[in-house]
Amino acid sequence: MMKVNPTMDTASITVSAIGITEVKNAGKLRALADVEVVFDGIEMIIQGVKVRADDKSTEVSLPTYRAPDGSWKAAIILPDEIKDAISDTVIAAGLEAGILRVKEESVGDRCTMEGAKSPDHFA
Predict the structure, then answer these.
(1) CA distance 23 to 31
(2) CA-CA-CA-CA torsion sign (66, 86, 17, 98)
(3) pLDDT tens, residue by residue, 71-109
(4) How many CA atoms lie within 13 A of 29 on its CB side?
(5) pLDDT averaged over the chain?
(6) Nearest Cα residue to 92 out of 58, 119, 47, 54
(7) Cβ neighbours of residue 15 under 8 Å, at least 6 residues apart?
(8) For the chain, what are the domain ranges?
(9) Given a cut of 70, is residue 11 above it in pLDDT?
(10) Where is pLDDT greater, at 44 or 7?
(11) Residue-level pLDDT at 116
């Protein structure tokens, strides 16, 4: 569960993952999640939050639908602060459920980081 207050003096928002289901044999799609978002006491459930992952990255995206012209459109539009809270909450639920895992640092990554003494080494 994560609490977000995007405008500090207008709304209290709580985000909770209420379910996450692993999806097998679907390419990068690893799971579908259901998320509860409570805006100042008003509950909303978002179903079908997608979790995509590969060896390089993990991405959480809100549900989409196919428009009559064939393009994919967002089914719900939310501010970035709420989308970020949903993403963080869903990733945490995926880790807890064993669907996602933390990428282990390679020896090369550790050597590069240890050798970087100043920001100039990251260029």
Answers:
(1) 5
(2) positive
(3) 999 999 999 999 999 999 999 999 999 999 988 765 555
(4) 14
(5) 85
(6) 58
(7) 1, 2, 3, 4, 35, 36, 37, 38, 82, 85, 86, 89
(8) 2-122
(9) yes
(10) 44
(11) 47
